[in-house]
Design brief:
DgcN-like (chains A, B); globular; P-loop_NTPase (chains A, B); homodimer; 11 strands; N-acetyltransferase DgcN (chains A, B); DgcN-like_C (chains A, B)
């Protein structure tokens, strides 16, 4: 979908966190990441070469990716001149922000004139089918969480990286805008119309080689009342052979819902397996991915050991430890 | 949303089945159903007075409802003159067909001139919120099915009718286009964007009197891989106090999916309860609604008796028997 390589546009990002999309691209797809472009006042830094539009174009950049958010997640007026310069140099523009490139007339006009494309990756552009639930060839692994934002994308990307390093066939399948910008394609599942959610996931994870693994980015949680329907569409559309349970142990309540507790890992395991067996009776949980960012090294070690013993499954923090043991467990 | 009473437009419906939307309105909302309008070749009959547009207008009709489908579910060219006549007489037009009133320029122009509205009830018009899962006042009953099209809408409507006949406070809450046309309002849930599904159901079933029951139309099935995400959004957004299990015992496979078996009533009960307890720990299954249209009277009797004994819950066919025993069981 998106043409690579990228120039990563950081705009006037007020801090490093505001550039987390660009950071994700640089971390997971360094081969796509030619350089960075900062405006006055930018406080983020990727450690990539600083490039002007002309330098990026000369180096082969095909797409300028908006890799930063300012307050409100909008396209800033301060960015427009640079975006138009990139368009006029013949580069596509890609953004995952809430307000859309296509709603800025000056960008639309410039893109039409230059013959380049504007990609708002938050908005579906494909007419997805209704899911048919037919068995597909190849293997699929889905990350499911006790809550939203517990490391499902990170886990799937870390497993893909480990598998590719071993020479195995693996494809991260993005289902949210950050993942789509990182890999250049995917389905913005939370923006798909209800009837087509599961079909969109089937479309994203089609027939493949028998020894190929799709590593599917999870969304939401079966236990998060706001988004659980999206998660179940992933479980049924994704037809997983294996599940990885994702958890953040310092979370005191469901994200955004102070009146909801997180389920236990055991409850998540049992419910996710029950639902996934509808489409694949042989599905298994193969491991647990824990985001231990909120713990000391010692706390994390002891927590992971306790979970591993209790659940009888490998329990790792892929950020601290890598995903090798999860890949080993794929079977 | 829709203004009542209605003139039910049957067009050139080739048979009675093609007029099932109009039949549903007449059966469940006779007080909305002033008359019928048939074109040449119409083979459907509601047993209502035949009315011209002028007669319907004089009798007080506020909305012409397209109550029939021709082959393909499209708005027929043969209908246009009549629809424009209704618009010019000052009536709104409502339709649940796949192709939209708003896409016919002659209808849009006539409606703008006459100052009336075109309602395509298949398309959401509300900006629904993200669900917050907060406990709401009043009571809610949700129909869940072993499959699609097993009588969930019929069950909820029959329970509403029985409750109103007893002087109880009850509101059928429509989640599909037929239900919306019948009652004049609702949410076309299968057309809502994924992130807002559960929020749309919360919006549809807001705080209410402590002794008021929402009878929520179910959609899909937790076990139907094409639509299960929509169903889970209903379970979590609907925050049910009670569930009614709906089943069609002669079905040999999941609707549209010959390679999928239906779950047992026991499996549906356990899974639906597990999921519903996330939002309401006190939720109960109170009965079973069986569509026995494919069975003889004797077969139906014996099947219902067997299910009732096996499940320890009232099992009725509301079409044959009414919904009194389900209402008794609401508690």
């Amino acid at each position: 979908m998106l043409k690579t390589p990228y120039l990563l546009f950081l705009g006037d990002a007020p801090d490093q966190l505001a550039a987390k999309v660009a950071q994700g691209i640089k971390d997971w797809r360094p081969e796509f990441s030619l350089g960075q472009l900062k405006l006055d006042g930018c406080k983020a830094e990727l450690g990539l070469p600083n490039m002007t539009i002309a330098e990026a174009k000369a180096a082969g950049a095909q797409t300028l990716v908006v890799g930063a958010a300012n307050r409100g997640g909008v396209i800033s007026d301060a960015w427009i001149a640079t975006l138009i310069e990139a368009i006029e140099a013949g580069m596509d523009i890609a953004s995952g922000l809430h307000n859309l490139l296509r709603d800025r007339k000056e960008l639309v006009d410039a893109a039409a004139k230059a013959g380049v494309e504007l990609f708002d990756v938050r908005v579906p552009t494909v007419e997805y089918p209704i899911a048919d639930g037919k068995k597909r060839t190849g293997k699929r692994c889905l990350a499911v969480g006790t809550d939203c934002s517990v490391g499902k994308m990170y886990t799937a990307l870390a497993m893909e990286k480990e598998m590719r390093a071993r020479g195995l066939k693996a494809s991260f399948r993005a289902t949210g805008q950050t993942g789509i910008l990182i890999t250049g394609s995917g389905v913005p599942l939370d923006a798909v119309v209800a009837d087509f959610m599961a079909g969109a996931v089937e479309w994203l994870t089609p027939d493949n080689d028998a020894d190929h693994w799709d590593l599917i980015e999870g969304q939401g949680s079966l236990f998060h009342p706001s988004y659980s329907g999206v998660t179940l569409a992933l479980v049924h559309g994704g037809q997983p052979d294996t599940l990885v349970l994702c958890h953040e142990p310092t979370r005191t309540h469901m994200r955004g819902l102070p009146h909801y507790q997180l389920p236990s890992l055991e409850t998540l395991r049992d419910t996710a397996l029950d639902m996934a067996r509808v489409v694949n009776p042989d599905v298994k949980v193969i491991g647990i991915s824990v985001n231990t960012a909120g713990m000391s090294v010692d706390e994390a070690r002891s927590y992971l050991a306790e979970v591993e013993q209790r659940m009888g499954l490998p329990a790792v923090d892929p950020f601290r430890d890598g995903a090798a043991r999860l890949v080993d467990a794929l079977g």
